[in-house]
Each structure stands twice: as C-alpha cells, then as structure tokens.
C-alpha cells in the first residue's frame, strides 16, 4: 500500500500534536527523575551539583509539559513549547559543562566542595549557585555508563531531543494557523 502525501502529513500532525508530545516528554522526564533517585538511593551514587541542577530542569520541563497538556490549547501549547525549549537549552548547557568536566584530567578538575547542607548553612546563596553551575571536582567522576555514555551524556541526548521535538511542534503549529 502506497502512502500519499496527505496521509503522511496527517500522521505527522498526530505525532506532533501538543497533547501527545508534551505527555510523552512529561512522562519521560518523570521517568528520568525516578531513575536518578533509584541510582542515588538504591545504588548509592551520590549526585554532584550539576546532576542536581539537571534534575531540577527535568522537573520544570515535566511541570510545563503537564500544564500544557491540561490547557489543551494550541496557542498556549506554543507558548509552553517556547519555555520548554529554553529549559532544554539550559539543561543541555549544564550537560555539556558536566561532560567537559568529565573529560578533564584529575589535576585540572575544580576543587571539591563540602556538602550542600553545609554550604547552605555557611556560604552566601550566590556562591552556592555559582559553585553548582560551574561544577566541582566530584562532577568529573564517571560513576555509571550505559552503551558508552555517562549520565550527563544521556541527559544531553534527552535535552536535545526535548528541544528538537518542541521546535518541530512550534513549526507544525505555525503551519496549521
């Protein structure tokens, strides 16, 4: 059976419907958070500051996607898609920084810092945020890999996929208007 151009466009539009795409991204983001907490609490892998920031970005991506699904409006979905794209770019930048730190020799890694609880009690908030964004020595540790990629490698794949999906969604919504 040959597919005509109209049926291909129809299937493309179903795949890129805001409800379907944002439901998929929300559930994927929440599953990634469950996996992160499993690695932390069951496998005993301590998250570094960049890991914690990436978790926060995934959480906000999931929230924006869920709100978009609940609104069920193409115009609102496009606005939420722009926010999701921005968050995905921020998450991708954090992942790239994390991968960069993992590629450095041990001698060139930034110094390790005390635990987050101690830092909150003693350091100014701006110093804590800077340390989290820039990463610390423990961000250079590769504690887990799957198919040759470390955790920040997989988060980069996820953030880029989220951004691409939402860019295609925005383009699709513009062409329908």
How are the elements arranged and paired?
Layout: H1 5-15, H2 18-41, H3 49-71, H4 74-103, H5 116-122, H6 125-134, E1 145-146, E2 149-150, H7 151-176
Antiparallel strand pairs: 1-2
Helix pairs in contact: 2-3, 3-4, 3-6, 4-7
CATH class category: Mainly Alpha
Mean pLDDT: 82
**Could you spell the SSE succession in H and E letters?**
HHHHHHEEH
CATH T-level fold name: Bromodomain-like
Q: What is the percentage of strand-forming residues?
A: under 5%
- End-to-end Cα distance: 31 Å
Oligomerization state:
single chain
Overall radius of gyration: 19 Å
Main sheet makeup: 2 strands, antiparallel
How would you describe the overall organization of this protein?
With 177 residues, the chain is an all-alpha fold. It contains 7 helices and 2 strands; from the N terminus they run ααααααββα. It is 74% helix and 2% strand. The longest helix is centred in the middle third of the chain and has 30 residues, at 74-103. The mean pLDDT is 82.
Quick summary:
The chain is 74% helix and 2% strand. It has helices spanning 5-15, 18-41, 49-71, 74-103, 116-122, 125-134, 151-176, and strands spanning 145-146, 149-150.
Output the keywords.
177 residues; two-stranded antiparallel ribbon; 2 strands; elongated
